[in-house]
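Database export, one record per block. Field names are fixed; values are copied verbatim from the stored entry.
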Amino acid sequence: MPSHPTQFVSWVRSVAPYFHAFRGKTFVLAFGGEIFAERRFVELAHDISLLHSTGIRVVLVHGSRPQIEAQLKRRKLRSRYAKGLRITDPVALECVKEAVGLLRVEIDAFLSLGLPSSPMAGAAINSVSTGSVRKVDAQAIAGCLDAGNIAIVSPVGYSPTGEVFNLAMEDVAVATATAIHAEKLIFFSDSPVQDKEGELLQELTAQEAAGLLARSNRLSDDTRLYLAHAVEAVRGGMQRVHIISRTVPGALLIELFTHEGSGTMITADKVVKLRPAKIDDAGGVLKLIEPLEEDGTLVRRGRELLEREIGRFSLIEHDGVIVGCAALYPFPDARAGELACLAVRPDYRDAGYGERLLRHIETQARASKLKKLFVLTTRATHWFIERGFAEANITVLPRERKALYNYQRRSKILVKQT
């Protein structure tokens, strides 16, 4: 938590768009039984409860490999595998059922106790177990979520004749997330997805991820398995699949609510999009520019004015969240255009989004046969000069814009030929 009040306000504002974007969306969290064996589930339960309290619909898919191994060991039996899948004979199946049953009880207990002495103390949450991979009962899961519960899906399946099957957790997770049209599928791995230099890869398209699987030997077996299933999920229609490390405290919250994230997001295409604004974007733009209006960097706009002028705005989205905007106001008679309301969220200003928006507005100006672009600013003079603008006096402004110049703001006038 930020220590200074100003930092706290900035932090709240930075996470607010995520809460707004994620409310009512369904996230599937998939983790192996190792998270219990390593005693990490208590901390994760805190974060799951926090997600649930913000209105995110949560589905948990858990594995049970270490617990099954322990049950077999007690019976002095050894596990047998074929192509990475457990060969489940009748005795092994009894171990599967016992291990899965115990884990379900443990998950229910942690989520329903309200987690005393934790950030979510008193926030008791109901959880309901459901689902199978042969045919995911999407309606039953939706019913659990609609009732305000967290849904738990275990890696077992049932045939119409009552037979029980041991299933791979990652297969269940992909099938479940796809069937219920989840917004995100999140795998908890034992290590991050890294490039050949050992650097975290924050974003990959499905094509890039498939290429990494083909050429990289830096990935752990766990991570390789989850990355392959992430590619499968995205190619099957999932919009976002994340792989995060279960060993990083708070990795889930960092991945979901910060620009930097903690893991890797796999998507069908690039997550950063530059697009024209629509009327439905007015609220998001207002939230973005509000801090700059309060400190005097931008002229204050009301929602009504913004909605009337929204067609002049271009936006940069990162994973569906508006993180930057800029507007072009043309003055055709003077063959000039005004670059206005250029704003980028503070935590994204090192990503080059301001420059990208500027280049986009310049392209728009040239396409409209405008010969020069001007901007009025009180705080960012040097930023614009470094990008080819030059200071000028009020005489360069088009007549109608000159009439609206606010002498009290003492804005610098900067001009650039397009």
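Remark 1: Confidence is low (pLDDT under 50) at residues 115-120.
Remark 2: The first strand starts at residue 26 and ends at 31.
End of record.
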